[in-house]
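One such shown below:
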Amino acid sequence: MAADDAGVGTNAWDLRMRCFATLPVRKGDWGVAKYWIRSTREDPAISHFVVEQSASPWAKPVDWTATAATREWKQVNVAFRWDSDYTGAAAATQYNLSFGAGLQVQEIEIGGFELRNHGPDVDVRTLNLV
């Protein structure tokens, strides 16, 4: 994902990768997103990870910014609780995932992404999220 001088925006989502999820989750479930990021330049790279309701009011159970200061891969772990039931039956009950990179000129690589639902009863301290 690269932003050049013409691609820099005023919002992280001005340049983003986005996908729409269809698997259901329940309000109060613990979600964990894991991914790796790095800069392909000497400058730090900034990724903006969002899980968002796919219709108004655009609720966001996750709105996370991570920085990779070097070309070395950095693992990012984000634990969160789902804010609503998302059944996927209609736009208001669907969610989407996105990575924004539009706030600065940069080249960033994102890899090894996974999103898991651990249910409502997991103790997140047992998931080894350093």
In short: The chain has one domain: 2-123. Residues 12 and 103 are 5 Å apart (CA to CA).
